[in-house]
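G., before I forget:
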Amino acid sequence: MQATNPAAHPLYPRLFSPLDLGFTSLPNRVLMGSMHTGLEEHKDGLRALAAYFAARARGGVGLMVTGGIAPNRQGWLAPFGAKLSTRAEASRHRHVTDAVHDEGGKICMQILHAGRYSMHPMLVAPSPLRAPISPFRPWEMSPRLIRSTIGDFADCAALAREGGYDGVEIMGSEGYLINQFIAPRTNKRHDDWGGSFEKRIRFPLEIMKKVREKAGDDFIVIFRVSMLDLVDDGSTWEEVEQLALALEQAGATMINTGIGWHEARIPTIATLVPRGAYAWVTRRLMGALRIPLITTNRINTPEKAEQLLNDGFADMVSMARPLLADPDFVKKAFEQRAPEINTCIACNQACLDHVFRQKDASCLVNPRACRESQSVPPQGTGRKGKKIAVVGAGPAGLSAATELAALGAEVHLFEAAKEIGGQFNMAKRIPGKEEFYETLRYFRNMIEKRKVALHLETPVDAGLLIGNGFDEVVLCTGVAPRVPRIEGVDHPKVLSYIDVLLHKKPVGEKVAIIGAGGIGFDVATFLTASEHQHTVNSGEEAIERYREEWGIDPEYRHRGGITEQETADVPRKVWLLQRTKGKIGDRLGKTTGWAHRLTLKHRGVQMWPGVQYHKIDDAGLHLTYQGQAQVLDVENVVICAGQEPLRDLYGPLVEAGLAVHLIGGAKEAAELDAQRAIAEGWALATAQ
Ligand code: FAD
Ligand code: NAP
Ligand code: SF4
């Protein structure tokens, strides 16, 4: 999709203005940022990646960057990770580049050497210091190895060109090898490659020069600079600026923004991070360079992107996960159909959490992501002529109803409540999870666009469905909260999470939460959030509050841009309890669980594992913790003890001879989450 008169775009004039890079130009200001999907390591993964990138090129993205590819074996992220160091490997990349070019798109390949973050024993780094997130201690690189590694970067760039790429991105941030050379935290050398700042940046500058020499002048080279390390002994702002200037002189086409090392204990892309929370970092560099600057992190709507470009935060905007969530993001924005965008909610559940567990990435709100090469029935055909009842408009029902309607079925969606959403109507109320509103907005639009007949405030019984001409029934009636067998569980001070989050029942100043799963954590977050956090969740004020809470210094007074965290203003005292021994929150998301735990720790929440519950009475919650029987004199006890499936309708409907499908919580409550609920809706509809 090319913008014919882009400057005149009525809604997003900046976003749709072309970017002139001298030897080439980009049709708009959207860069699809690098994301590892796991497909890179599959035997035939480049074909699957070709379909994945082709879909995004068709969707109109200005420029895309692949996941990280190592320039040599030592740089592998994990054993047998993706690498480009031979011509045979380069030729296989033609699957990807040809597919993208056929759709009129442009694509760069990211070169990433993991250094001490490599998950294999042959890892190397400027100094032999183990990363706090790695089990392995790296080998110190000899000057000879440093020189050959620079050569490998340059050869890799030349091979990427041979493989048809329009350019490369050199990964110089997030704490990977290049970043490890730049920062005094990890570079303790005393030779020509360490010590003074000039020596520490010699490695990235030599790489930049050699890459330009080998790959030619008419080749895009993006350098991703770590502009805010968020770790002790990271770079100073002056160093960031000097490095960027030197990279420009050494031939970089554009500078991309990197935020935070992987070992930093500050969340940088999770949903609790306000939108555009790091654009201020890129803005500090605006005006210092002649080449374009790209800003990044938690930009997920065209409005936010346009505002940042318009307010001079950057020349281009990088979005990675939002394009996983919706390959047509750019096209929909261009056609003024932004309400139809399936917005990334920054949950990390199906993308980063999967990759960190060595599973293929996908997307919670878009189960098709990374499965673009699998065949599905064409729109409007698969279920034509069928009349289908979908019962329950939670995530499972919304997904099934809208996908079935897209395939041509006449769909009736029944919901007992006044609004669609099921449990998402509680999730969206948690401060820091407001993005869940966007998923509901998306489904509301899809219901309308695909002409699903929505029946709100309609609790379904079997009589409503039997004899009404339905060919199939999809039961998505969800779950009911589990009531644990504890003496006094019916005491007036006991509340369920539904009472607290949905019915807004008043809660006292001392509270015990029984159950420390995802919902227990969310309830603890809700109950300990300040008035301000409940009411201001976007814009500059929210960003300022987030910086204070996590100790991020916009003045950059210390190396790495970090400072003391400010003490949170907490309205009540909370105990978060579980019976299982071991770490509280161990089953939360791999890439976000630590941030949820830190949030609660900072708010003074007592997190107690290995608890035995005895009874609840006027005195409070009687329990044993660490071998000691005691009474927590709490005003309320909130039960978050998991859930049971709700599927009373199943038996009578099957008995009446109807074809009934069970999905989501109604099918299985254990380990249920929205990712599974939405994926089951999609899978049911598209099964051939
Ligand atoms: P539900 O969401 O429970 O929807 C069932 C729907 O069916 C309801 O709307 C109900 O009213 C309706 N219904 C029931 N019976 C009838 C009937 N007879 N007739 C008509 N309608 C009926 N998951 C994640 O993956 N990530 C998160 O971050 C996350 N956060 C959460 C935070 C909170 C506070 C909560 C409560 C849940 C959270 N979840 C999260 C869990 C997620 O919301 C659920 O897994 C998901 O909603 C299950 O979807 P479902 O459609 O199966 O059921
Ligand atoms: P959950 O994760 O299964 O947690 C249930 C909690 O209740 C556990 O801590 C469990 O711990 C406790 N429990 C279970 N049976 C109990 C009993 N009989 N008596 C007392 N305690 C009991 O379920 P959930 O918190 O209800 O969440 C539901 C689903 O939503 C989960 O699958 C979750 O992944 C998803 N969710 C995800 C997020 C997210 O941020 N990703 C947020 C919210 C919800 P013990 O057995 O050790 O006591
Ligand atoms: Fe965004 Fe969550 Fe999808 Fe990842 S899984 S792309 S974070 S919505």
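The mean pLDDT is 96. The CA atoms of residues 364 and 675 lie 5 Å apart.

More on Monday.
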